[in-house]
Write a structure and sequence with these properties.
single chain, about 250 residues, alpha/beta, UDP N-Acetylglucosamine Acyltransferase, domain 1, 2 domains, five-stranded mixed beta sheet, 3 helices, globular
């Protein structure tokens, strides 16, 4: 059904303010929507700003591929609703709030618990679930969520410094691999499929999705990096929207 929104910010860093989102609309990473009605079955693309009704009315409709992806996401979340209820009933409150195995689902009938290295510090309300492999001497900040309940494994190398409210999550049948010495700021999203080398520095509110990233890369605050390859030593400036390989290559020209 239609959704009337005052203010909402999703884990993909889409922001919606004072708006009506009609049935079937699909809003992607980093979009900004303010004071409009998003028509039914409309697509708001990565990083797109929609702040007038004229812009909203001009939005394209979902393609067959968009719609198939959206339906799969909804089906996955329906299974999560059942799986997490079962996990709570069998393993208790800690299993849905702290460090635990994943829920049992159709794609993951035999869930496993995380593997946590030596001398790891978990701040209050950190959530680590499923086939997570976290390296030694790492720190995980408050309300950070490392969720290997859909795509797995999620591997993070040693000496990771992960700040508050960071999300790690991978689509079904994909994974995340990140090398040693990861350094994040707050509110970062890592969305698999994703392969990252050593010594990534990623700043506040950035999103990294469906990409291959080399060693010694820096991604600035609020940047969106989606569907590209970044070679060693790349610097992505703040607020950049990098969604094709041409844009990525221009960063190192």
């Amino acid at each position: 059904s239609d959704l009337l929104v005052d203010v909402i910010r999703s884990r993909t860093h889409a922001q919606i303010r004072d708006s009506l989102v009609e049935d079937g609309a699909f809003i992607l990473h980093g979009a900004f929507i303010d004071g409009v009605t998003i028509p039914a079955d409309a697509l708001v693309d990565i990083g797109q700003q929609v702040t007038t009704q004229e812009e909203a009315d001009a939005l394209p409709k979902l393609t067959e591929d968009n719609n198939a992806f959206k339906l799969e996401v909804l089906e996955v979340n329906a299974e999560f609703a059942e799986g997490y209820v079962e996990l709570y009933e069998t393993d208790g409150y800690q299993a849905v709030t702290g460090v635990s195995r994943g829920p049992r689902t159709g794609w993951n009938p035999d869930p496993v618990a995380p593997t946590i290295g030596d001398d790891v510090v978990l701040e209050p309300f950190a959530r680590i679930v499923g086939d997570v492999r976290l390296g030694s001497d790492s720190t995980v900040g408050r309300r950070t969520s490392i969720r290997a309940d859909e795509g797995a494994p999620i591997e993070i190398g040693a000496r990771a410094e992960i700040e508050d409210r960071v999300t790690f999550h991978a689509l079904k049948d994909t994974s995340i691999t990140i090398g040693a010495d990861l350094d994040t700021d707050d509110n970062v999203v890592f969305h698999g499929p994703l392969t990252v080398g050593r010594r990534l520095t990623i700043q506040d509110d950035a999103v990294l999705f469906r990409s291959e990233v080399g060693n010694n890369v820096t991604i600035g605050e609020r940047a969106l990096v989606i569907g590209v390859t970044l070679p060693d030593g790349t610097y992505v400036p703040p607020d950049a929207v990098i969604t094709n390989q041409g844009q990525a290559d221009a960063l190192t020209d």
